[in-house]
Amino acid sequence: MMYKYQNLYKILIDAAKDYPRAVAIFDDKDKLRYGELKACVDKVGAYLQAVGIGFGDRVAMCVSNSQEFIISYLAITAIGAVAVPMNTFLKNEEFSYILKDCDAKILIASSSLSKELIKLNELESLKKIIWIGEIPKALQNTSSYEGMDEELGESVYLDVNLHPSTSPSLYSKSTRNVKFNDMLDHKYLLSIPRSPTLNDIVHIIYTSGTTGKPKGAMINYRNIFSNLEGAHSRFVVKKNDRFIVFLPMFHSFTLTATILLPLYTGASMVLVKSVFPFSNVLKQTLFKRVSVFLGIPAIYTAIGKAKIPWYFRWFNRIRLFVSGAAPLAKQTIDDFKLKFPRATLVEGYGLSECSPIVAANLFDKQKPMSVGLPLDGYEVKIVNDEMMELPVGEIGEIIVRGDCVMQGYLGLPTANDETILNGWLRTGDLGKVDDEGFIYIVDRKKDLIISKGINIYPREIEEVLYKLDEVEAAAVIGVRDTHADEEVVAFIQLKDGMDLDEKAVRAYLKKHLANFKIPKNIYFAEELPRNATGKVLKRVLKEQIKDKI
Prior knowledge:
- The protein is an alpha/beta fold.
- 29% of the residues lie in helices and 26% in strands.
- It is built from 17 helices and 28 strands.
- The protein has a nine-stranded mixed sheet, with helices on both faces. A five-stranded parallel sheet has the order 4-3-5-6-8. Strands 19, 20, 21, 22 and 23 form a five-stranded antiparallel sheet that branches.
- Helix 1 crosses helix 2 and helix 8 crosses helix 9.
- It is globular and about 65 Å long.
- Its main location: membrane.
């Protein structure tokens, strides 16, 4: 396919030139216009160049929903570096693994998340941590960016080829921690000797893998632009649209569909710092005249069952609801149509490895329980274990081919060979297609659990459980609740003569895993069911648990 742009920064340049006064971001009472957004991106990009970040270097982000997330992401990619957005719900050990795996040179972090991030300051691979907000108290003995003023000057032309040896103080331990806001107090001119092209990596999204450790899916600009072009066409996005952004920005769906898509079309984003309280999401949706609302099934289930004020139902401007990350329950779809008869609810399907959107229902045609047709330019097939295509209506693994397919997992050639075959990406999802090509998701071939739109891999939790001396065997499964979302459930078999209770297990897990990975239910079994080779039979556990959830 042919694409109008080669990189994201060129979109921003055109937007700032053609409609500089148009609002790019609504943030509570603040507005950031496209001209102002480009100026902020230039400043942060120039600073990253000054500290030695060059083309292809990885810059990690652990940033809460904010203008700074958007500015940082665009600045990183503007200078040809690679953004690595990290799940803000992770714990120190998990952050450390990702930073080492991607060899990040810089970490941009929200100070509100410092509890799990402070120890990362000890990582030798990190040249600097840029803090959004105040530098954590434990690091107050270090100096802030203000200490560099004399060297950088009020207005300085900073080149991407600036080498650390020319500015040694920028790398000294005393300036390892920098305030993000201080960067915006100075005027910088951004120089980009080498602009990214379609084949260059734009970001790395970490997703759960078969080894239990997160895997970095490498996404290039071609992947992203194919998604943006396809979504722009499928959702009939217009320049006067306003997108609500309340889901975590680190999520591939949020990043592509609610941040980059509005930027691509010159539309506006309405930022909400958190989904809680949800009443604030509805308030911002109404007052900021949001027209495109993107969410996950858990959100739509809550809206479908909640008592929505009559004035919201009458005066909201929403024309399109989009659901992704997991299948919607039929009851949710039915409840929604009754409450919002003037809007269209479109269900889609995707995965991080596909940038992430693969398919979505048509704006003017939806089929119940279907995730729609592939976006323009993408191919989807249903195959058996031998990768042979199955007839219409038969259930098999969903495979995808097109410009959306990732460039591979970072540093994992074996996993790449298993996942991408002759350009076809094996999704691990089970589904079927009808005679019109509409896709229906049936189940997942792998053990991957999706809870509230977030991927959770059971083996990662099991590996932590196995570290407990009392545990002989452990198995973690996902069980669907009444809203078609999944709950994490753990089964534990104790060693003979050993004793352990649920409270102790939870306390241990909370020290090593993000809260969303902690099982909702923990059951102790005398013996876990196994097959002839000793593998735990999780399908048997799922049958046993049906009556308990």
